[in-house]
Amino acid sequence: MKPGVIDNNRIFRRVGVILALFLLTISIGVPLLLIFWESVYPDGQWDWMAPIRTITGQHLSGVLLNSVWLGICVVAVTTLLALPLAWMMAKTRMGQHRWVDVILMIPFMTPPYIGSMGWILFMQKGGYLQQWVPSAASWSELFFSFWGMVLIMSLHLFPFLYLLLRDAIIRIGGNLEEAGAVHGGRAGYRFRRIILPLLLSSYGMGIMLVFVKTIAEFGTPATFGRRIGYYVMTSEIHKYISSWPIDFGKATSLASVLLSVCLVMWYMQSAMSRKFTYRLVGGKGQRSKRYSLRGGAGWLCGFYLALLLILSVGIPYFSIIAASTMKLRGAGLSFDNLTLDHYRELLSWGSVSMKAIGNSLGLSLAASTVAVIIGTGFALTIGKSSSFMQRVIDLFSLLPNTVPGIVMVVGLILFWNSPWMPFTLYNSYGMVVLTYVVLFLPYTVQYVKSSFTQIDGTLFQAGQVFGGRPLYILRRILLPLIIPGMLAGWMMTFTIATRELVGSLLILPPSMQTSATYIFAQFEQGQVSLGMAMAVVTVVMTVLMLLGIEVLNSKRKWNAS
Amino acid sequence: MLGMKTRKRSAMLLLSAVMSISLFGCSTGNSTTGNAGQAAGEGSTATASAETTKPAGGKLVLYSAGPQKLADNIISGFTAKTGIEVEMFQGTTGKILARMEAEKSNPVADVVILASLPSAQALKADGLTLPYPDAENADKLNKDWSDADGNYFSSSASALGIVYNTKLVSTPPTSWSELATPAWKDVVNIPDPTLSGSALDFITGYLSVNGDKGWDLLESYKANGVAMAGANQEALDPVITGAKSIVAAGVDYMAYSSKAKGEPLDIVYPEEGTVISPRPAAILKSSQNVENAKAFIDYLLSDEAQKLVADAYLIPGREDIEATNRANLKDIPQLKVDWNWMSEHGDETAARFSETFK
């Protein structure tokens, strides 16, 4: 950059860094500090050895290894699922089918424990599969194993990796590959030497989040893992935090171990990302070659997509919808056992369930909007994480994704409900929004960062050369280029916020319910059908909303041929 | 004393650390507004407690474990009678206790209803409950289930039994030990005692009668493929759908209400006796609405509320009221359990049980 503009930029940057640090300290730093405080201060006695004792004394190494092994396997399987799909959707004519993206958001929108329940209802003894195909009884229960759990979790998380990879492949564009072809590189060579290195940064970010999401996930271990006797860190943490006797000290000690594992992952990822980040979005127009799929290849791709859709959406949703339309759960699949009464009860005007839906939508809209604004600010401040402060902000804004949700939430409660606070936010609407923003901030930061770091600085220099002031450059160059990232972050936050459960259970003011806590309460109360109906209704609503956005968005094609 | 001192000092340390962070924004104004806010806070609590001396109107915060419909009905009955608005948090006993723990520096709940007597005994032992010895109708309550000093009142109870799927089981087992026989291999669920207060009551109750020999039964369960499966509803659900045949130590009111809906379920109480798990309600010492809380306890023990309890397939807490839709107290063979032993040994039993069944 030219010396004259650097001063200007530096001031902007410094203000941004200070503001970001301040916000992160009060929303994430202090609450987590209080958690650590609680872990070395159990039973009102200072005891810095407490976490170490907890860890050595609880057969923890086995549980920790379980968590890590699960994370590794899920990363491997999500890669297998997501990478071919990302390539197909970026590089072939299949990419025109934008509806696929929305359908693939469904697994991600489904609360993990609901998805697992769907699989359990389908595969278990006397389950839907065996009612359909009685001969399946000989093998279907083999599904209840470690690999069944890996499959369920991968099917839940792969859309996330897919979206990141697809966007990255689109950004790579066609001309680099063409250059390789011109110089005589064959397809395999081009993939290995051109596409792969350029993908590594996004892929590293993606798998780190998948890994962290997996080992911080609570729903599937609680429903499926408990059933097969596979215990992980989160189930242990949850045990100490929600069952008698409550022991925040132990829970927070375990959480700090989990946190350390995630921090190591983060460090590896950021080192890799710094090495392999390239400027891909330059000023020159990009063409991307799209293969038209004919014959065998087309069939293969179609078959692959269909299989993915059946596994990730078809089977769980068959179970969920079947369970939601049953008069008697004990009577099984049959037409005289069908009813829509649960939907009628759910959607009757002014009912508790309608209020819960309203709450969910309102909270998610507020939270995702705030998260996008703050998150974009953070991402731009972090930039290419060249300075130490920027890396600190990067680390902090990622923390909520590396701490199990429940721990983060307890920290927030400890902070915002402490006696020395001049005002307490706890037990108010604002507290819920704050919690959601904190929990889901990493998504926006990641998405925006990923699109921002790949913009070539020459674009801004060009803007300045032609006399653009900072605001003008921001509006006409930067924003248009990062809007897809912001939109993706917004959508991600919105969809996850509508199904957020663990935090809501602790943080919602009494008498207030969201659709997720409503579903959970129905399960607790034995109204499984009503809960499943609610799951279907919320997912349908979210899909319709995303479709609307998708339609609006497709009018404005970004960086396409 | 020393502990107190270090605690105070470390609290100050933390406080000053946090203050210096928030001072970042505004340097001098902060501390004074902080003090003012605190003073105002104290003032308002003082006026609040003065206001609550008149029972009509105002609000009440209730944390309630157990069937939601029952809680909803009780709340609407109570509000209709007194005009007091009730805000409720509904969850399992474990979740309620977790929430109370998270809020301990700034508690909001006035009354808690739990599904486990030992938890209420622990609340009392920790000095968190407010005694209300003058509660109306308290003298009619089952003495074994409630506190003599009025710290908690069990307004309802449920018995634990063998719940079975009638499509899969034609001759249900009649004793606890029968579940360890090959006929029931791999088809039995038992709720997780760390999640279900009533399951813990059954296990500690059984052990309090049988001593260490009681573990023989539980270990033979494990050997026979009995699976530990979440809280009560989670353990029951696979039995309704037919993936499992039996819940050992299942709560009976869930079985009765599912059966009333038409699900293929029924329940037997083993002949050697079972445990009845009372559901205590307590006023918290930190309550900001003491008079309203007292009025709520009075209502819980009234004829009207006890009738609602019976309608929800639970055993009424008052001995003079009977349910017509289920087995009553006198019809259920009971083990002679020792509640004091149970509440002392709850933690270690739960830990050993989940270690055994993992």
Describe the overall structure.
The complex is a heterodimer of chains A (561) and B (358). Chain A has 23 helices and no strands. By secondary structure, chain A is mainly α. Chain A is globular. Chain A starts with a helix and ends in a 7-residue tail after the last helix. In chain B, 45% of the residues lie in helices and 15% in strands. In chain B, strands 1, 2, 3, 4, 5, 6, 7, 8, 9 and 10 form a ten-stranded mixed beta sheet that branches. In chain B, strand 1, helix 3 and strand 2 form a beta-alpha-beta unit. The longest helix of chain B has 23 residues, at 29-51. Chain B is globular and about 60 Å long. The interface between A and B is large, with 58 and 78 residues.
Write a concise keyword list for the protein shown above.
heterodimer, A: 561 residues, mainly alpha, 23 helices, B: 358 residues, alpha/beta, ten-stranded mixed β-sheet, 12 helices, globular, disordered N terminus
Brief synopsis:
The complex is a heterodimer of chains A (561) and B (358). Chain A has 561 residues and is mostly helical.
Any chance you could write out the topology, listing elements then pairs?
The complex is a heterodimer of chains A (561) and B (358).
Chain A: H1 3-40, H2 50-57, H3 60-91, H4 99-109, H5 112-123, H6 128-132, H7 146-172, H8 175-182, H9 187-216, H10 219-228, H11 233-242, H12 248-275, H13 295-324, H14 341-346, H15 352-382, H16 388-402, H17 405-416, H18 429-452, H19 458-465, H20 470-499, H21 502-507, H22 515-524, H23 528-554
Chain B: H1 2-23, H2 29-51, E1 59-64, H3 68-82, E2 85-90, H4 93-102, E3 111-113, H5 117-125, E4 153-165, E5 188-190, H6 197-210, H7 214-223, E6 227-228, H8 232-241, E7 246-251, H9 252-261, E8 265-268, E9 276-283, H10 290-300, H11 303-311, E10 315-316, H12 339-357
Parallel strand pairs in B: 1-2, 1-3, 5-6, 5-7
Antiparallel strand pairs in B: 3-9, 4-7, 4-8, 4-9, 4-10
Helix pairs in contact in B: 3-11, 5-12, 6-12
